Amino acid sequence: MVLKKSWKVIEPTNGSTDLHIYEEYTEKEKQKYPYSQGIWLASVRNYHKDKQQENARLIAAAPDMYKVLKDVERVLGDVFETSNDDHQPQLVPILMKVQRAISKAEGMDDEESRSARPDVHERV
After folding, report:
1. Residue 124: which pLDDT band, with cuts at 50, 70 and 90?
2. For residue 119, which of 64, 73, 88, 99 sits 20 to 30 Å off, Cα-Cα?
3. Three-class SS of the chain
4. Domain check: are 109 and 56 in the same one?
5. 29 compared with 13, residue with greater pLDDT
């Protein structure tokens, strides 16, 4: 017979921002360890309940932001290619930030990003 234990979440108290997850003890274990919360499973560091909605909205918007960023990269690249030399130095840092953000969203590290996207500095 397999006993299924439930989990419980202990929210931050006394100024702490750490949330702890425990597996509840069986009745026998509760008698043996009356002052314990249960079997510790995990902790979530710097948990802020008020940030949950903010993070959920950001995650929900991420696909749209990614598509827009890809459009911005294309347009900035076109402008960079057709602009005169006076404007190119202003475009370089912006285009590089856009490319880094896209690469990060695509799961690339810095080296993979450089090989996937030509270095803007080489075109200046």
Report:
1. very low
2. 64
3. CCCCCCEEEECCCCCCCCEEEEECCCHHHHHHCCCCCCEEEEEECCCCCCHHHHHHHHHHHHHHHHHHHHHHHHHHHHHHHHCCCCCHHHHHHHHHHHHHHHHHHCCCCHHHHHHHCCCHHHHC
4. yes
5. 29
Same domain, 30 and 88: no
Q: What is the pLDDT of residues 73-112, one digit of tens each?
A: 888 888 878 877 777 788 888 888 888 888 888 888 767 6
- Tokens 């995990």 sit at which residue? 42
Residue 62 shares a structural domain with residue 82: yes
